[in-house]
Structures are given as structure tokens and as C-alpha cells.
Amino acid sequence: MANPDRDRHPLLNLAYLLLASVLAGVVVAAVAFPAVGATGFAAKTGSDTFEDLPTELTIPPSPENSYLYAADGKTVITSFYEQNRRDVGADEIPPVMRRAIVAAEDTRFYQHHGVDLHGVLRSLIANNSAGDVRQGASTLTMQYVRNVLFTAAKTPEQARAATAQTADRKLREMRYALALEKRMSKTEILRRYLNIAAFGHQAYGVYAASERYFSVPPSKLTLPQAALLAGLVKAPDAYDPTQADPKPATQRRNYVLDQMVALHYVDAKQAAAAKRSPLGLHPSEVPNGCVDVPAKHRDWGFFCDYFLTWWTAQQQFGDTRQARLDTLNRGGFKIVTTLDPKVQQIAQHEVLRQVSTHNPYAISMAVVQPRTGKVQAMATNRNYSLDTSHNGRSTRHNGQRGNYPNTTNPLISGGGDIYGYQAGSTFKMFTMLAALSAGKPLATSFKAPAKLKTRYPVGGGPASCGGYWCPSNANPSWMDGKRMMWDGFGRSVNTYFAWLEQQVGAEKAVAMAKKLGIRFRAPSDARLAAHPHEWGAFTLGVSAVTPLDLANAYATVAAEGVYCAPRSVLTVANRDGKAVSIPGADCHRVISADVARAATDAARCPVGQQSYYKRCNGGTAPNGFGAAIGRPFAGKTGTTDNTQTATFVGFTPQLAAAAIAADPDNPRNAVGDAYADKVDWAVGNTIRRSLAGHAVRQFGKPSKKIAGHLSSGRHKPGHQRRHHH
User: Fold this and answer.
1) Cα–Cα distance list, 249 to 74, 94, 112, 457 (Å)
2) Mind telling me which residue stretches traverse the membrane in this protein (predicted)?
3) Residue 250 sits in a domain of what CATH number?
4) pTM of the entire structure?
5) What's the total number of domains in the chain?
6) Cβ of 704: how many Cβ atoms within 10 Å?
7) Is pLDDT above 70 for 191?
């Protein structure tokens, strides 16, 4: 097909091609190596003739930025790239930019066939006169070929070969360029060149360059801006307009403007006005990776890190973790995540209301949507940052910097050697679910003593009596006595739940936790979970857990027994906008709806609300807490020995959230009683505010069968008191 971009006599075209074939080897050698000259190269070209060189240039897709979006599909969390590039169509590149690059790099672009023999001969004369390489004679088409070969290089050797100052490389560029112009229009070659050229500051292609230097898309470029960008590709570092001395960049821009006048692209008056204008830089940085999330949203980095954990586990993106990261950094994907900007902002605000970023204690919170597994927020009083130079001192090591306010540790989702923290009595939920699933009703009663000797053997310690585990209640006068699941859970009666665990078996409670997604990340916990028959203390939350796993476990209860694996990604589209198939919601029923409703009914008690069967008579959350939420709400408090950690999990039918307060640098450093209230309010207010304006949904009522036999009289609500457990 004839190329519409040319307007040249056919005989002249033929002459160019013949000259290229006959003279290429000799001329190129002289251009590239003036000191050696053509004679030394003549023998080399005997067998490796110009016509024998390959003509079909393999053009892989150029690396493009992948963008990570929040759930609205508009809010950019960050991007990932190896080279900051975003391809644009020819209609998005204004004529002024196309003309500027031609004026700067290849004034005869529309006259040659990919190799400009006028330029080659001119370079031959100039280089031989100077004794070194002063002019390279590379056309825009040849430069495009070089960029393609360099970008496609998979090894350092290939990259060096693509840019080496050798006659072989120059000849191959010419051969490819001539062939390329037979199958591509000038417009397409120019578009591709402007999408691949390096403009400095990691900006590849005109879109990235426009945004990097002027914070505008290419379509908005002015004449002086286009001239400046066009001038950069020759030597981006030498003409860097952001350096202290703007003179080289200004002179180069003005040179391009003069060239545009010579080519009649602009008139002298327009060029003069453009020369008088300042450089007018308005630089902007394009984020790259999780540590580059927006400065005012440093908390987003923890969710971004959680997304990366998911991405690098997907085999469809590569055989190894590094291959999958390479795919992300080069693939030009649009990834829409589950992060809800509104819920994230609320969660972060509520955490910071309770504790500042400069506090060694961290409150880390995860918010999950029941029935979907969508992770909507991950908040903590930390900044996701690698810069720890001004961090506070660790409470564990004298003189060593701690992980506050800046860290990249996955405090909310876990990973590596971050296993989570003990969550105390929140684990009583798993014992209760196991008992309900085994046929025991909510009305199962037991006269809970202040201290209970169980059949679970222990080696020693304060909870040991005669070689057996003997838990005790945190506040006997308020917790002891005849209890059922409602008030046993509401008042967090340790001896009631130790007894209940014995009735069903610790292995059943552990198995239930696994069903609901508790992962036992710590090696010591994993060993106990593998042989749980004698793990009596499990019901009191002695296993480490992350806020995310705990929130999702309770979200399963909120979803009436349907477990959904936590998910961070909604959709992935490739650079062409086509959907990439990824795993969807992984949901399945793990407990019956009636069991989940019964557990929820009991979970109304700790927060100070009332169950369907009016059996709540006191809770462990702050006074007035349940009423302040303003809608049906359930949850559980949890503290560990000496309040080393404080935990709260809360849920409605629409949302579940868990927060754990701990010292990440020194988990044995107790946060203290005050943090028990802090985590309660952080979670409660997050759910309340996130659901403002949403319909109020009721919890399902458990059956009379699972409620069990109840006396005709109702339990009188006891004075709600705050106790730690």
C-alpha cells in the first residue's frame, strides 16, 4: 500500500534505495568510525551484506504504567512502572508537538524513506573533518528502531548492543528503518516515536513528559512547551530544564523554534514571542509503587501493600514473584480495587482521633463488607513510608529507632514475620459457634466459678493448678454465677467459655476458627493448631491474629454463615481496555444461618444492645456505646493479660471492622486499660459514620430451637460496667 505521507518523485525514491544498498556499509563505517575509515570495514561486509540483514523488526508492546484505583474507578491510589509511560493516539498529539520533534530531530523526515543519505553524507564530512563523531545521521525512524531494540532487550548485553557505537548496529538500524517505512505511515512512525522516546526524569513518551514538566496532557501543550520537550530527547540530562541553570534548556528550546521557522511551521513573530516566554515549568511526580501514594494519604500504602501480596500470588501474571512484578510494572493495567475512599478516610480519622502517629502504640483497623469479602479500609496511626530517619525510639531496644510514625510493616494484613497480636476474648466467638453447631442452644447454662480447673494439661504458670489449665474470671463479683451464652459472652466470663470449650472440644473451636479464615500465622500457633485437642487456652484468644483476618471472621457471622475470602481487587483491564479474567468472590457457607444468627444475638450483649430473646444483662463495652451506634450492632471486646493488647470487633449486616491496639516494636509492652475504650470507639464510630445515610438493616432472629428452653421471666438488665478480660 502506498504511503500517503510522502510526496517524492519515484525515480528519486529508487535512487535513495540503491544508494542505501550500495553505500551503506562504507558510509556508515566512516560515519561511526571516522578514525578507521571505510577501508577497514570493507572486508567485514563481504558476507554480511546490507541486503542480508533482517528487515522484520519485532515490535513488542512498550512498557506502560499500571494504575491502581480505588473502588470508584477514578481515585488513583498509585501507579507501577519500570518506565513512566502512557501511550497515546495520534489524535492526542497536537500538530505543534509533531512539528517540534521533526524540527528538532529530523528536518527531512517527510522527504526520506527512513534513511536520509543527505544526512549520512553530511555526517561523513563533518565527522572526518573533526576526527570524531559529531553528527550521527540518525533519522526519527532509525531512532525509533533503536528505542524499540533497547526497550525489548531482556539482558544487559542486548541493551548494550542496541545502543553500541558500531557500524553493525547502524547498518541494522538503517535496514530496519527502510523496511519499516514500507509498512507504516509517517504519521504512525511519528506517533510511535513520541510514545517511546526518553525525555528525562523517568518520563518516556510525550504523555509522561507533558505531565512531568507541565502537569498537562499533550493535547494542551503550547508552542514553547512543545519546543522545550522536543529539545530534550537529544540529551535529556544536558538540557534538563529543572536544573539550577535553565540556560542550556532555554537555548535548546530556542534552537528548536528557529528550526520550526526554517521549516515554515511557525513564523518569525510566533517564534520570537515563544522565545520571550519563561520556561513555565509546573513539574509533577508520577507515583511509583506503594511508598509513593499521595502525601496526604500515606495510610493508603498499607492497602496497596496488601494488593501487591495478592498480585504476586497470581500465577497468570508470571511464573515467579519477580516475573509477576515485571508484568505489573510494564503491562499498562487498570486495576480497580475494593478500597472505599470514604470508608478509608473515616477509618483513618477515627483511629487518629484516638492515638497520634507519633505514639509508639498502634491502633490498626480493617473494615470488610460481609457477603463479598471486599476489604474497604485499612487504617492505622502510621505512615506507609521507607523514611525512618526521624522515627521515635523503640520501646524494646534502647537507642534503636522504632516503627513510628513511618513503617512499611503490614500491621493490618500481616505478612512475613508480622503475625498479628493476641486478640483476647474475641476468640470466644469461635467456641460459641462450635457449641451452637454441635447442637448446644444459647440457653446452655453453667454456674461459672471464679476459677475453673479444666482437663487441659499445662506445664506451669499462673493459670496452672496441679498441672492443668485453671483460668479465672477478671472480675468475679460481676462475672461469676449461673450463665448462658448470652451473658457469658456479654460479660466475657472466662470460666464459662473454658467449660463450654470442654463440652465441645478445643479441636472443634480451633476448626471453627479455621473455617472463618483464622490463619495461625505464628509458627508456635500453627503447631498448636495442628494438634489442638489440648489447647484449652485457645478460647481466651492467646493466638496471634491480624485485624483483617479477625474482621473477616466476624463478617462471616454478619453474613449469616457465608464466608468470603478477603479480596482487594474488583477488576483488571489490560492496556487495550479489555477485561482480564481474575478470581472473583470466593464465598461459601461454613455455618448454618441459624447458628450465625444465634451467635449474633449473643454478640448484641457485649456492646450494650439487647438480644431478640431479651437475655443481655450487661456488657464490656463503654456505657452508652451500643446506643451511640444508632442501628442494630454486635461485637466483642478483648484484652490480654495486663492489657498488653486491646481489641474490638464490631459488625452490622452491612459492615464489619476489627481494631487491635498494640506496641508493634514490643508486643509485651502493655498498652493499658485506656486503649480498650479507644479501640471500641474507633471501630464503632467508623461503622456508624460509614453507614450514615444507608438503610438500617436488622439482624435475623435465631430460631426458638437454637435459643433453647427459657424461663418465663426475663433477665433484668444489669448495670453495664466496664471490665477488662
Assistant:
1) 35, 22, 29, 78
2) 12-36
3) 1.10.3810.10
4) 0.89
5) 1
6) 11
7) yes
